[in-house]
């Protein structure tokens, strides 16, 4: 059974370690803050100028002045700090972020990512994605394995304009957890009830399957 967006975020939350500084991109990544273990200390950074971002607020408790980069209302944890975009991107470009979690439209088997533009469609701009992928040492992508037409989004080469080159390390989709290594996708885990064959069929890029592939645990 394919994962929901919330389950993708829940699985990615297992990659977040104690004392990490983590940047969350818009879309599925924003959900990760809801699932991080209570016994670890993590600082979530949003590029619009907050360090110490918490989970989404409960209905009725939203503060319209407190938002993330995707303009969603958020909470701030005790000790959170607020600053301008220059300071925020100084943190990002200065490589002070331990983990970056981004959404993507396409990922290539060499680690290229396309996540900002579909030709012919109106977009507001690349935003901070270019800085994040150029500066981050550890990038995890949260995405659907296929598009609405059932076509793979894990490709030999990206067809959309690139945001960054050879930068993605790991991908969590609604079907699987994959690592990019030696120019190929390596299957690490599969979603509960999803077979290796289904993942292979949904992956256009070269997929390496080494031994038995365990189901994800949450």
From TrEMBL:
Keywords: Transferase. It comes from the Bacteria. Signal peptide: none annotated. GO terms for molecular function: CoA-transferase activity. SUPFAM superfamilies: NagB/RpiA/CoA transferase-like. Belongs to the 3-oxoacid CoA-transferase subunit B family. This is CoA transferase subunit B. It comes from Aequorivita vitellina. The lineage of its organism: Bacteria, Pseudomonadati, Bacteroidota, Flavobacteriia, Flavobacteriales.
